[in-house]
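In practice, a research group might receive sequence data for several interacting partners and want a quick structural hypothesis before committing to experiments. The following worked case mirrors that situation: the sequences arrive first, and a predicted assembly follows.
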Amino acid sequence: MDDAIRASLAAAGIDVDEALERFMGSEAMLIRFLKKFPADQGFSALAAALEAGDREGAVGAAHTLKGLCGNLSIKPLFAGFDRQVGLMRAGEWDAAADMMPQLTQDYNRAVEAILALG
Amino acid sequence: MELDCRGRNARQEPDTMLIVDDDELNRAILENIFSPFYAIEPCENGKEGLDAILRLRGRVCAVLLDVVMPEMDGIQVLRVLAQERLPEQIPVFLITAEASGDTMREAYQLGVMDVISKPVIPYVVERRVNSVVELFQARRRLGNVVERQQSALLRQAEQIIGLSRGMIESLSTAIEFRNGESGEHVRRIHDITKYMLEHTELGDGLSPEDIDAISLAAIMHDVGKIAIPDAILNKPGRLTAEEFEIMKTHTLQGARLLERIPQMRELSAYRYACDIARHHHERWDGRGYPDGLKGEEISVWAQIVSLADVYDALVSKRVYKDAYGREKALGMIRDGACGTFNPSLLECFFRVEQELRYLYETPKEEKKDG
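A structural hypothesis for the assembly, expressed as tokens:
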């Protein structure tokens, strides 16, 4: 992985070294799973569920996204979804919904950086 | 055959790891970590995982179990496994992104070995899982070793018992060979003693183990003859008074010989053997030897062996006499021609003598001094 790509992923909050360690040093495997991230329907499902007041759907989607971002070491998103799942489980739905603008911004940044991989 | 199968099973260690997680990425990460160590069986939900565990149970060395899954969640899977007591045999690890206090408590109560948080850190999860798998393997191997050693020890104990018995029989038979007999005499004394103890009231109060020990001891009644010179032992015809005195010492010599074998003392037959060797020539009226014991002073087993010895000598051919017919032999015993016996012993003997005859049917003639 060249330094420019590594820098742009890092700028989007992705800890490449940590992620590579999780994939036992396999860059190919990391890139393969990173490239699946933009196509993942989880984030839109989360937004739609919150919009529709589908609490079960929302907490399921947020939980899955948290796991996904954790595995890929997309740090701000992992931290964000972790907090959001916590709020949902605590019944603080407004606070959970209020996190969406920030999450959307972080999400888009990560998607852009990943799409730049080509 | 059965042993063979068990042996093969013992050698074939379970080597399959089940990774139960609905998320493809999670499965891929865990598989990537553990595929150098185990055959990996991925399962996409709890139901599929449970089926795989039950289907492959003997081959599974570890289960990595996600908590939040469709179909059946990890805790539900665990509950079923706990009912089957499987977590005692197969280590189960909960891999979870958020373990609440209650979930973690229940998981441990249901028998999980460890709760590992996601996202996983490879070197941590690898060490934690592999250590436990090794522990289970070592425990299983040790269990097999102990089991094998136990059965080996049992086999050895049986061999030792058989060997001791063989040594006792060889010693007694060797002594019998010395005065030109075939070993059938000691075998019959054993059989007569055992038969009378098992089939008459003479054996009342004795356990089957006691009867075995006494019958084995009966085999050794004449070991003292090893100390009697050939010229006396094998003299055809009547012994002089002086020779007879020497012959009589085989009772004391026998008891002394047995007392000098320390290993003999461990045998349950030992105390019977010493008693029988010393007292199998005592008589009910006190006119026997070497101690001149009288009546109940002589143990039941020594009395039985005395009578068996006399009976066998009468109906067999010996260096100093031909075999007597059955009627003549019984008459001589009844009339006290060979010394006086306990009337109730004689009563038992005459009652079963018909059956004792069968012991003489296969082997032919015997010769031996009493």
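Before designing any experiment, note the following. The first helix of chain A runs from residue 3 to 11. The radius of gyration of chain A is 14 Å.
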